[in-house]
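Let's practice the habit of predicting before peeking. Look at the sequence and jot down your guess about where helices and strands might fall. Then scroll down.
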Amino acid sequence: MQARALLVTGVVVAAMLVPVTAASAVDDVNTNKLRKSVTVSGILAHERVLQRIANNNGGTRASGTPGYAASADYVKKQLKVAGYKVTEQTFEFPFYQEVTPATLSQLSPTPTPYESASLQYSGSGSVTGTVVPTTNVVIPATQTPSSASGCAVADFVPASATAPQVALIQRGTCNFADKVANAIAAGYDAAVIFNEGNPGRTELLSGVTLGGPVSIPVVGVSYADGEALYAATLLGPVSVAVGTDIINETRTTTNIIADSPKGNPEKAMVVGAHLDSVLEGPGINDNGSGTSVILETAIQMQNLKIRPRQQVRFAFWGAEETGLLGSTHYVNSLSDGQLSTIYANLNFDMLGSPNYVRFVYDGDGSADPNGLAGPPGSAQIESVFNDYFAAQGLASAPTAFDGRSDYGPFIAAGIPAGGLFSGAEGLKTAEEALNHGGTAGAPYDACYHQECDNASNLSTAALNELGDAAAHAVMTLATSKSGFFEDGSRRASRPEISVDDFVYWGSGLIR
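Done guessing? Here is the structure:
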């Protein structure tokens, strides 16, 4: 995934300038009419259509499937009727589907089955061979991540030219894609990557992406199983069977881009949400909720004849779930001149989680003592959301820019970004339950990336509160006269995020 991220132009460096305080940079805008017009009923009307589309197409709206094509067609028609100039941006992408779960078993000296998970974009096939660990495995694991296992080709004993061999690699330091590429370069027929063993890095290694198709089967295991395999290799030859059943092929998908008829096109604000679901389910919260909120906002802005000063570009991204591919393709397709016209990016990904928190992306990096800030202007965007929630008597909470959604390519190009998120698979804390309601110790969305992410998997309270906040921010930034900056002379108080700081690229771990 690292290699894919580096395709984005204009990577941010630490010493860029940031503006003065957000309060003096963004106008106070009366958004009452728009917020009253963007109703839960209107949002749910779109959600019901997306559910029906999934029902009619095998239960999914994933990019590269008929369900996604039908979703894109629906959004496109709604936007055209509302009066937007709509463009369908087509691109090819690496489609990935696990047909049957991965398997890993020790055959000798002690027959042992292991729980395993295929890494996204693993090759497909069955390999029986001896296990060869990298030369720099760190066992016992240190308290903090330190293993560079597999980060260089020299970490691997050159594989046999005549007998199949399986590389055993420890998580740590560099991207999973680099580790696998080095294993392939060293001649291995399959790879097993085990979790590093530090606190928080002991469980089954899953939810990992390699960023693009590789030629060998690659599976993840827990630290305990990796440690056991490693210990066995110190006593003598260990033979394992690795099996993956994968579809890796090139398919075509689209982004739907809608420009407002009014507003300065030399100062365009991209308001984005990913349109695709995962293959496993209809994706009505992830991300039918973000899609439906910005679609209804776009429609009501036209109905109310709101005249933006900045052109508003509503974007519905394809292939987010396979690694932010749609938004990355869009940013990469821009010329230098076109890139310079992007005023800001607002990102809305999951706004209806049943056990929700009103998360706001941490534009100034202040939530973490060692936090990283978004590009100049991101702090002001964060303040627009936080100030709105405070005015409504509602708590908000910061969430880090960690690369999990479509703001990633914009941040990497130095574009100010911000947005909302109601929570995914993480567990709600006691403090969050006190401030936002709901159940402490339970997932924000127990149906995240599952078949049950359907029309019953939504909080109407979350859609109401976050939907209003989204509409407020879109209109505020679209109609603000002053913009983010006064003179740009003040330096950033914190280093800025770069591509290399992301732990995720989309929903998949990259290192």
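How did you do? The mean pLDDT is 91.
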